[in-house]
């Protein structure tokens, strides 16, 4: 799904079954992805089902990247909140000065 093409493809159903059982697929589309994504794909396409990760195993493979993304997102949100608050304070200060100037006239 990541590569937008099926990993196993042939027009002959018997050849398709053979490719799946042998774990023969084209690695070329995966060259454009990060090493961590490729590793997850390789592990999910492992021929021996006992060595293939279940959903918990896949989640474990993704956890570090997800945590880094979450940390960066939180830092970005905090930074944006700080900038918004500074802008609000600046706006309120300007508005207050404008009103005091109008009252003094």
Automatic annotation (TrEMBL):
Provenance organism: Rotaria magnacalcarata
Protein name stated in the entry: Uncharacterized protein
Domain of life: Eukaryota
SUPFAM superfamilies per record: Protein kinase-like (PK-like) (SSF56112)
InterPro entries linked to this entry: Kinase-like_dom_sf (IPR011009)
